[in-house]
């Protein structure tokens, strides 16, 4: 279930939407689907994968005989690389969509870096990261794809392109829920089928931005929609844990 907690109205259109969550939650699949759906509906959108390079560093570590990225560059080194690469990716995505007028569908955003820092236990880095990422506007809608870490682990093992430990997935899940931004996230039951997850996202956006399935007749985004900060979530704690 996805639910908006407050419904004030203001003119606007969908410019930036972010999908966040632990590895294995289906962020990439859903972000691709959403960008394609919006474009097909006459609302041109571009998918942006705002990765921090952790997977690439992990592969490099294996080639060099190290078990993982952290063992290659150290915890602080990993967090520094992640923070910089993700910042650059988000900046490029926002500039691109500003110039083209297309909706930016973000696969990961600033909150992912804050959660990564907390999950790694590098809390002193969070203040620096927040200072650097403060220049970015908050997405109009941020979907947190909530899935049980055990299910996320099974998905990662099935795809076979990388590996995460249960300890890391659990720590990341806890970190997302502890972020001060958590009350503004729209929680999506990502343990459901991909089709059902897409429906939850689509239904929520339809409620926020009426007429999303057709072109904006004015061409200027003049349809009414509630503000980004008014998008909340119905808690899934009963299904996914605290």
From TrEMBL:
Q: What are the GO cellular component annotations? A: cytoplasm
Kindly state which keywords UniProt assigns to this record, in alphabetical order. ATP-binding, Kinase, Nucleotide-binding, Transferase
Does the keyword Transferase feature in the UniProt annotation? yes
Q: Where is this region: Disordered?
A: 205-242
Start and end of every Thymidylate kinase-like domain? Answer: 21-201
Annotated GO molecular function terms are: ATP binding; dTMP kinase activity
Q: Tell me, which GO biological process terms does this entry list?
A: dTDP biosynthetic process; dTTP biosynthetic process; dUDP biosynthetic process
| Pfam families with a match to the protein in the record | Thymidylate_kin
User: For this UniProt entry, which segments traverse the membrane?
Assistant: none
Stored PANTHER family: THYMIDYLATE KINASE, UMP-CMP KINASE 2, MITOCHONDRIAL
- Which family does the similarity line name? Belongs to the thymidylate kinase family.
Q: What is the designated name of this protein?
A: Thymidylate kinase
User: What is the organism of origin for this protein?
Assistant: Micromonospora costi
